[in-house]
Amino acid sequence: MCDDDIHQGLVHDPSVSRRTFGLMAAALTGVVTVAHADDTVEEKDVEVKTPDGVADAALFYPKAKGKYPAVLVWPDIMSLRPVFRDMGRRLAAAGYVVLVPNLYYRVRKAPVIEGTFNFANPDDRAKLMTLRPSVTPAGTVKDAQAYIAFLDAQPKTDKSKKVGTQGYCMGGPLAFYTAGAVPGRIGAVATFHGGGLVTADADSPHLLIPKTHADYLIEIADNDDQKEPDTKDKLKAAFAEAKRLAQVEVFAGCNHGWTVKGSQVYNETGAERAWSNLLALYKKALG
C-alpha cells in the first residue's frame, strides 16, 4: 500500500456535512436516496452486508432507461468523501453503475476525514494510521465478493457485461485483489498512483495477475516511479507472462495523487488524460 512519504502536502476536500453521508434506517432495501444537482444520475447512500459487518458506500447509476456495466471504485487512503462521490457521479454519467465503498467501515463510517488534511502534520497522519490496519488482503477479498454481488443485484446492472474496478493510492492493490477474488466477473482493472502493487510478500497483488481474466490500465506517478523504477518493469513482465492485455504508463510531471481534485499535486491535464484512458479501457473491456 502507499507509503506515507509519497503523499504531498495539503489535501482539501470541500466539506459536505456528516449528515449528508450518514445512513438512515434503510429497512429491507438498504438504500437512502440523496438529492443532488445532476439530473442524469441517481445517487444513493447504501449499506452492503459483508462477512465482517455492514459497509457504508455510495451507489451511482444513470437515470435513463436501460442496463449498464458495473464498476467498483476503491478510493485512496482518505476513503469515501465528496471528491470520490464526484468521480462516481461522473462515471455513472458515462454509462455505468458505480459503487464507491468506505474502506474503513469496520471501524468508522465515512467521511473519516473532513476539511483540510496535512500529511506533513503527525497528528493528521495519526488519524489515518489508526484506520489503515482494518484494511487487509484477506478482508478485501471478502469485501470485493460482497460488493460485486451487490452490484450484480442492482436492477440497472447489465450482468451480461463484465465488471470494472479501479483503485487510487492504497486502492490500487485492492483493485488487483478484486480481480483475483472474482476472476469470472472482472473484465477490467485500472490503478492510478497505486502503491504496493509489487512487493516481496507472498500476497503481493501482482502475483494474482495469472488468476485473473481482465485487461489492465496502470497509471504510475512520476515520483513513485523515481522511488521504485523497477515496479513498472516487473508489472510489464508479469502481464506478458500471463498474457494479459495491459497499458503500463508513467505520467511524467505528475506526482502521487495527481488524479484526485483537492490534492496539492492535482494535475488537471494529467487527470483528464488518465480519465480518458480509463473510459477507453472500459469501453473496450466492458462494452
Automatic annotation (TrEMBL):
InterPro entries: AB_hydrolase_fold, Dienelactn_hydro, Dienelactone_hydrolase-like. Keywords: Hydrolase. Residues 56-285 form the Dienelactone hydrolase domain. This is Dienelactone hydrolase family protein. It comes from Caulobacter segnis. Gene3D superfamilies: alpha/beta hydrolase. GO terms for molecular function: hydrolase activity. Signal peptide: none annotated.
